[in-house]
Specification:
4-stranded mixed β-sheet; 6-stranded mixed β-sheet; NTF2-like_dom_sf; 334 residues; alpha+beta; dioxygenase; 2,3-Dihydroxybiphenyl 1,2-Dioxygenase, domain 1; Nuclear Transport Factor 2, Chain: A; Glyas_Bleomycin-R_OHBP_Dase; metal ion binding
Amino acid sequence: MKTNHKKSNRKVQTSAAAMLNVLILFSASEKTIAQNKIDIVGIDHVGINVPDLNKAVTFFDDVLGFKPVTQLGPIPLDADWKKLNNINPNTGAVTIKMINAGNGASIEVFEYAENKGSINHPNTDDIGASHIAFYVNDINAAVQYLKSKGLKILGEPFTTPSGDTAGESWVYFETPWGSKMELVSYPNGKGYEKSHPKTVLWSPKNNAVKKLSGDDFDAKKNTVIVENHLKIWNEKDEVKRKASLNEVYASNVEMVDHHFIAEGTEDISKFIVELQSKNPDFRFTAKSVETNHNVVRLYWQFGSKVKPAVVSGMDLFVIENGKIQKLYVFVDQK
């Protein structure tokens, strides 16, 4: 790049804007670049047809806890529109209700008056058959709840044992009008995420808006939580360590390292055991702890009594409801 500025002995500093451009360049895949050609941001809503709008809204509201929001119609449809959109010429006006489905895409529910289209649900293997999957924190509890509401559960929850979706549990159920929908849960993450930490899959569980309590902003309490975190990583007794893990970490805690992502206390416990077995004489010690609301920064070192700082680094914690929810690990490069 040519410039009119005179040369200087000072080292040229890369600007924040330039650094951001570099990060974007290296993180964007060919698929992302292709997608940006039409500027798609994400899925806004999913549309479904129902035989009775009021009953469907009652189901989404009373059973699933979703909030009905906007409504359009009834809207008369002219012959040209029906022909263009493959609607039976004798079908009547359409009424549309948008349902806010929590932390994710909305559901747009259609009811056609005097519907002359097919009243049969497509079979699972029919072209055009589809379903909506809802993420739940506890799939077994969710299944029992749906059963208590009289809904038909199609089988029992199944947990994928291996492969990209290892750790994911799912089960199908039927709505009161016969549509097939799904419950899905992976509180400890999926196999794909652990094998490809650089490619982060969007998940409603990772983007849910949580309400923080006043205790989450207590600097003294958060400092103690982080200090107990270090005690866990130094604890050699498995029983004591696991008990402390459940006290200090959220059950779905996520630890993000440069090389991998660990999800859940079990994953973290396995990593600690492996680290201790490889370095039996090493211990973690804190250099400093800094708090900012519910975020804590810990500077640490790891080594033996003779060499206490063989490895050093910084951990960044996000604390919610008195427990560590997120842990980001930065290891100093030597």
